[in-house]
Design goal:
This protein has about 300 residues and is mainly α. The protein contains ten helices and six strands. It folds into three domains: about 80 residues, Winged helix-like DNA-binding domain superfamily/Winged helix DNA-binding domain (Arc Repressor Mutant, subunit A, Orthogonal Bundle); about 100 residues, no CATH class; about 50 residues, no CATH class. Helix content is about 35%, strand content about 5%. It has a two-stranded antiparallel sheet with strand order 1-2. A two-stranded antiparallel sheet has the order 3-4. The protein is globular. The relative contact order is 0.08.
Length: about 300
């Protein structure tokens, strides 16, 4: 029974909306959460990654993957950003990607019944070619040579490969832990991005470059959100490389110089934001999931760092 003060949000599932039942499980959970948070007037919602993780009981990477799927298939439409840089979406009836391996007849047309017609007697049997998406076997990635005795040996090509995740700035390959840090940072900054490997490498470089206070990751989040909240379209970072170029500028008016000159205590925009009880900086796009809201706000990294110090 709907109690007084509660919002009843009907969900129509007839007709074309029956496609909802065919959405991937996690994508459906995220879509329903956005749907439940939409207002009656302007149809939009803006739950943060942390809110979706908590409400849907999903991991950070799962939320990113599910919401990216919804956007790519038009079930969520990006309509703008809040004044704090949080993306706003509108739920829609999107489309379902075509199924892989749909049966086809001899002419290459998909059979309506889903059953491939049996060739007539006397017709040639068509050979089945491997799917293009299937990875090539190991033997095709290395050269084969046959010796005089008739035995086959595998030879690795002599061309030297550049190390995976190599940083030209650090002059070395990233460690596994550093790559994980860079990936997490990317998902915080661009939850709907394609996660290009060069962007991950650049984020690790920046986190090391701006690690003066012992937490370069948090500094990168602070810088990103400062830009999102205080810069207009022409100066607002849209990519990791734009941010890196702006921060690494040798100009006396570089983004990093402007950030350090910014006073959060007197800024009318920052005054509306929550302040981290650990570092004293305003909120970013994260929140420590182990800190109850009634105990104040903590950045996710600040909460983790505090737990490490106290041994909890």
């Amino acid at each position: 029974m709907i109690k007084k003060g509660e919002i009843w949000q009907p969900l129509y599932i007839g007709g074309k909306w029956s496609d909802l039942f065919r959405l991937p499980g996690n994508a459906l959970k995220v879509w329903l959460l956005h749907y439940s948070m939409e207002g009656k007037g302007k149809r939009r919602s803006w739950p943060t990654i942390e809110t979706i993780m908590e409400q849907c009981d999903l991991s950070h990477n799962t939320v990113h993957t599910a919401r990216l799927w919804l956007v790519e298939n038009k079930w969520l439409v990006l309509v703008g950003y809040t004044e704090y840089g949080v993306p706003m979406y509108r739920v829609e009836k999107g489309s379902l990607p075509p199924k892989i391996g749909t049966p086809k007849n001899r002419e290459g047309v998909v059979s309506k019944s889903g059953v491939t017609p049996i060739p007539k007697s006397g017709s040639q049997t068509r050979s089945i070619e491997p799917k293009p998406s299937e990875p090539e076997p190991l033997e095709s990635l290395v050269s084969q040579s046959v010796s005089k005795e008739g035995t086959t040996s595998l030879q690795v090509p002599e061309t030297e490969k550049e190390p995976l995740y190599y940083s030209s700035v650090l002059k070395r390959e990233l460690t596994f832990e550093e790559h994980e840090i860079g990936s997490d940072l990317y998902l915080d900054l661009l939850p709907l991005g394609k996660m290009d490997e060069q962007d991950v490498i650049t984020l690790v470089e920046l986190a090391i470059e701006y690690n003066g206070r012992g937490d370069g990751q948090q500094m990168i989040r602070n810088l990103w959100m400062w830009n999102r909240r205080h810069k207009k379209e022409g100066l607002r970072w849209r990519t990791v490389q734009q941010m890196a170029k702006s921060l690494r500028s040798e100009s006396d008016n570089s983004a990093y110089v402007q950030y350090n000159d910014h006073d959060e205590r007197s800024c009318p925009i920052c005054k509306k934001l929550q302040t981290c009880t650990v570092c004293g900086k305003v909120e970013d796009m994260t929140r420590d999931e182990y800190t109850p809201k009634e105990h104040g706000y903590k950045h996710r990294s600040c909460g983790s760092r505090e737990d490490a110090v106290t041994g909890e």
